[in-house]
Amino acid sequence: MARGEAIRQSFDAAVPIMLGYVAIGIPCGILCASIGLDALQVFLLSALFYSGAGQFMVPNMYLAGAPLASIIASVSLVNTRQVLYSASFAPECEGASKRLSFLFAATVTDESYGVSIAKFKEGDWSVGRALGVNLFSQSSWALSNVAGVLVGGIVDIPLQIAAFAMTSIFICLLFTQRLTSANVVAAASAVVGVFACKLLGLGGAAILVGAALGVAVAIPVSSYAARRHAGKGGASS
C-alpha cells in the first residue's frame, strides 16, 4: 500500500478524535494559562506529557492548593491505565520494529485505544497506521491547548466553566467502561473516598485518596469475580 494512502487512512480514523480534542483542549489550555504557563510551555507539556486527564488535573489541583506530592501521585495513578492499553497491543506489535512499537505504545490514549482496537479487529491495519492515528490526535490536542492559552489571554472566560471539562472527561470515561461488578465498586468507592476527604477538610488529597480507594477495593472484587467465573466454567465442562 502507498505511504500516502496509509497516512490518509490514519487521518480519516483520527478525525473524530481530533474534533473531540478541540472541544476539550481549548478549556485545558485556558486552565494551564491560569497558573502562569505560556503557549510554548503548554505546547511542550502537551507534546511530552500526552494525557488529557493528567493535564486537566495539574492546574485544577494547583488552583485548589494541593501539595506537589499529591499532584504527582494523583496524576501518576490516573495514568496507570495507559500501561495496560499499551500492553494489550503486544500481539499486534510482534512484527513491527522496536522503535515503531515504542512510539505507538507511548502515544496511546483512551480515544485512540478504542479506534485502534476496532481497526485491528477489522483486519488490514498496521502499527504504523495506528501510530498515525495517535500522532494526528496528539497534534490536534497540542494545538488546541495552545489555542486555549491564546483565547484565555484575550477573552475573560470563567475558570469554573473550563474546569468542568475535566469533570466531563471522567464522566465520559466512567460511562464508557464495561458494566462489571469491579467497575461499579471502583466508581462507588472512589466517590465515597472523595466525599470523605471533603468532609474531613482534606480537599487536596481527595482525588488521590478516591482513586486509590477505588482501585484497592476493586482489585479483590475483580479477583473474586474471575475465580467465580472460572469455577462455573470448570463445573459446566
Through-space gap between termini: 46 Å
Strand content: under 5%
Oligomerization state of this entry?
single chain
Large-scale geometry: flat
Q: What is the mean pLDDT? A: 79
Helix and strand element order: HHHHHHHHHHH
Biggest β-sheet: count, sense, barrel?
A: none
Strand pairing plus helix content: what structural class?
mainly alpha
Radius of gyration: 20 Å
Give the tally of β-strands.
Answer: 0
Tally of separate helices? 11
Poorly predicted ranges (pLDDT <50, ≥5 residues)? none
Share of helical residues = over 70%
Question: Helix and strand layout, with pairings?
Answer:
Elements: H1 3-34, H2 39-48, H3 52-63, H4 68-78, H5 81-88, H6 98-106, H7 110-122, H8 127-154, H9 159-175, H10 181-199, H11 206-236
Helix pairs in contact: 1-3, 1-8, 1-9, 2-8, 3-4, 3-9, 4-11, 6-8, 7-8, 10-11
Describe the structure.
With about 240 residues, the chain is mainly alpha-helical. It has helices at about 5-35, 40-50, 50-65, 70-80, 80-90, 100-105, 110-120, 125-155, 160-175, 180-200, 205-235. Helix 1 (about 5-35) runs parallel beside helix 8 (about 125-155), helix 4 (about 70-80) runs parallel beside helix 11 and helix 10 runs antiparallel to helix 11. It is flat and about 60 Å long. The termini are far apart. The relative contact order is 0.15. The mean pLDDT is about 80.
